[in-house]
Amino acid sequence: MNSSTRLKLSVMMFLQYFVWGAWYVTMGTWLGETLKFSGAQIGLAYGTTAVAAMVSPFFVGMVADRFFATERLLAVLHVFGGLVLFYASTQTEFGPLYTVLIVYTLCYMPTLALTNSLSFHQMTDPGKEFPGVRVLGTIGWIVAGLFIGSMGLEATSVPLKIAAGGSVLLGLYSLVLPHTPPQKLGHTPTLGDVLGLDALKLMKDRSFAVFVLGSFLVCIPLQFYYAFTNPFLNEIGVTNAAGKMTFGQMSEIGFMLVMPWFFKRLGVKYMLLVGMLAWAVRYLLFAFGNNEALVWMLYSGILLHGICYDFFFVTGQIYVDQKAPADLRAAAQGFIAFVTLGVGMFIGSWLSGVVVDSYATTSAAGVAGHAWEQIWLVPAAGAGVVLLLFALFFRSGDRTASSS
Questions:
Q1: Spatial separation of the C-alpha atoms in residues 37 and 324, rounded to whole Å
Q2: DSSP letters spanning 196-238
Q3: Taking CA 248 as the corner, what is the angle to CA 245 and CA 254, rounded to the nearest 5 degrees?
Q4: How far from 325 is each of 66, 169, 264, 313, CA to CA, in Å?
Q5: Does residue 66 surpass a pLDDT of 80?
Q6: Which residues pair with 368 in a beta bridge?
Q7: pLDDT tens digits, one per residue of 105-125
Q8: Could you list the residue range(s) of the whole structural domain that residue 57 is in?
Q9: 45, CA 20 to 30 Å: which among 27, 143, 164, 258?
């Protein structure tokens, strides 16, 4: 891959995740503080990405890979998606906003797979070249958070408008990306191809089945962090909460660099266990921290994001790649993404909203708030139970599943 192509792909990744980071992190604060939506409504709004994650494989597998050049499809999805997201920023009622967000996320979520596939197509050695390009996406997310937090825009609809502008810009920029023709001309994919259902045969292996079930279950408490951390920090008076939340992405970059060292010494099972433990510890830190003497607990919980994400999600992807036979690897990755990012995160979005509503409070002065200590103990307990079950039943050293 030459330097010109690398630069183009790096800018693409920066904008791709700048857009997501600009609206996703702070939307809960805008919905709760300004629009006065309930916790359940906020959770459902965040669940639109999970719905789209379940639907987008159909689009990518049955349409994108067969009929359209990737860069042109990215252009259409991002320009149209940007216009839809701008319209979403003008909505003030839950029903219309939820509907528009569904339309937007159905445009955005397929682009995650499309930007990856476009990058891989242009690389001679993706294993070595992709991380250096993909890290620009994390930097884009960080820049979005720092900008929005420093400008004090978290409780407004402006972040959605910024993301909308970034989306239109990325759509236009996509037209100058390297040409990437349809990958599966003449091939008609089945439902099993699209959803990775062929990977179900791997469930005969007990360890793989335990991994899938554990990954699904732990993704339910995970969504508490994504949907409600920013509203929590703002409610307890943390200044520039969006900017401080980018410490998590900064730690993600750092832990990604040292993952090979840990992986060699801990192995798959203990890497996954450490990742699950980090989620439970993070929620405990949030539960007992405050914006005064114990503010270090809040920062520590945010900084744990590198372990939470890298040790669990990235290690899980590596495990699936090692466990599945060559002819089932793509199907297995698609299946685990559908189960975790789709079904697990959707249930977590709904449940987190219900829990937050259950602990809503009103002060003597009539100020609405939440009993955050009790709220964070719920996902902490959930992650802890999954951790215990996973430790008891998962065996990473079992025989590799057969493709028969």
A1: 44
A2: TGGGGGGGGSHHHHHHHHHHHHHHHHHHHHHHHHHHHHHHTT-
A3: 150
A4: 25, 40, 22, 20
A5: no
A6: 362
A7: 999 998 888 888 888 888 888
A8: 1-189
A9: 143
Same domain, 204 and 267: yes
Q: Are residues 204 and 94 in the same domain?
A: no
Shared-domain flag, residues 45 and 108:
yes
Secondary structure (3-state) at 400: coil
Question: Greater confidence, 68 or 18?
Answer: 18
**Is residue 56 within 8 Å of 200, Cβ to Cβ?**
no
The structure tokens listed for 29 are 């604060």
- What are 70's two structure tokens? 């990737």
Q: Of 189, 221, 241, at which residue does a domain stop?
A: 189
CA 17, 23, 24, 29 dihedral sign is positive
**Is 31 found in the same domain as 156?**
yes
Q: How far apart are CA 278 and CA 54, in angstroms?
A: 27
Among 189, 208, 230, the domain-final residue is: 189
Confirm if 298 and 286 have CB atoms less than 8 A apart. Answer: yes
pLDDT at 377: 97
Q: Are residues 198 and 165 in the same domain?
A: no
Q: What is the domain-level CATH number for residue 284?
A: 1.20.1250.20
Q: Is residue 25 classed as helix, strand or coil in its secondary structure?
A: coil
CB 401 within 8 A of CB 205: yes
pLDDT digits (tens, 9 = 90+) for 288-337: 999 999 999 999 999 999 999 888 888 888 888 778 887 777 667 778 88
Q: List the one residue out of 60, 77, 67, 59 whose CA is nearest residue 16.
A: 77
What is the model's pTM?
Answer: 0.87
One domain, residues 124 and 94: yes
Query: What mean pLDDT value characterizes the chain?
Result: 89
State the DSSP code for 402.
Answer: P
Give the count of domains, the chain. 2
- C-beta separation of 348 from 220 below 8 A: yes
Same structural domain, 215 and 82: no
Q: What share of the chain is helix, strand, coil (3-state, %, to 5)?
A: 80, 0, 20
